[in-house]
Amino acid sequence: MSDSVSVQTFDDSDALTTAAAAQFVDVIVAAQAERGSASIVLTGGGNGIGLLRKLRENPGAIDWSAVDVFWGDERFLPAGHADRNEVQAHEALLDHVPVVPARLHPMPYGDGAYAGDPDAAAHAYEHLLAAHATGGPIPDFDVHLLGMGGEGHVNSLFPDTEAVQETKRYVVGVTDSPKPPSERVTLTLPAVRRARRVWLLVAGADKSQAVAAAVAGADPNDIPAAGALGAESTVWFLDRAAAADLPTA
């Protein structure tokens, strides 16, 4: 395990998201103190949305008007659809803190201008990222939050797919997701690696083998989470069940 990769283990998912939320506040407050603003990438899933609920309960000293919010992936569904990560994030947090609408950057909708063409939607989101970058092709996100599937997928990057093998583009459309819906838009591993910090929030015994493989440095084509590395640090927030197959010290 690289020195820049660390593992934190908690009794359960609630303790995991509570701790991650507290650390999230510290990181964002420090970023705002240093640069005046912060940028984050949100994820869906039980732990990703659970962390947002914790932030709603205890927002700390974050200036939400000085946060740019992006998404790591999205189901290519109509605006307002309950299964969109964006909708769930609004319900959990964003509708309850003083965010600036212009600083919320959802991925394109499946019924919008790019209907039927997730790849065109991906290009549009890549252009949006470029427009918010300073000194690079896309922003250097302060934190990129990720969940992980039992087979090791992160965002909508599934094992042995073109999306996880992408090396140049930062956003791609997916038309054959093995997990429905089949059409999605996702940030790629090169985009994930632009983040200063990558945090993986993972709970459950069904994920323990993929966690162990990823932490040990598996091939990202086999275990996509293994390629999700932050430019400065990578933190795995695990419950005890998800950490069960990690080697003991």
Distance between the termini: 12 Å
| Rg value | 17 Å
Counting helices, strands and paired strands, the structural category is alpha/beta
Average pLDDT, all residues:
97
Q: Encode the helix/strand succession as letters.
A: EHEHEEHHEHEEHEHE
The main β sheet shows up as:
6 strands, parallel
Low-confidence stretches: none
**Helix amount:** 25-40%
Shape: globular
* Topology, number of strands: 9
Based on the structure, what is the oligomeric state of the protein chains? single chain
Strand fraction equals 15-25%
Please state how the strands of the largest beta sheet are arranged side by side: 1-9-8-5-2-3
Q: How many helical elements?
A: 7
Walk me through the topology.
Layout lengths: L4 E6 L2 H23 L2 E5 L2 H13 L9 E5 L1 E3 L9 H8 L25 H14 L11 E4 L15 H4 L5 E4 L9 E4 L1 H4 L4 E6 L5 H8 L17 E7 L10
Parallel strand pairs: 1-9, 2-3, 2-5, 5-8, 8-9
Antiparallel strand pairs: 4-7, 6-7
Question: What would you note in describing this structure?
Answer:
This protein has 249 residues and is an alpha/beta fold. It has helices at residues 13-35, 45-57, 85-92, 118-131, 162-165, 189-192, 208-215, and strands spanning 5-10, 38-42, 67-71, 73-75, 143-146, 171-174, 184-187, 197-202, 233-239. The strands form two sheets. The chain has a six-stranded parallel beta sheet. The protein has a three-stranded antiparallel beta sheet with strand order 4-7-6. Helix 2 (45-57) runs parallel beside helix 3 (85-92). The longest helix is centred in the first third of the chain and has 23 residues, at 13-35. It is globular and about 50 Å long.
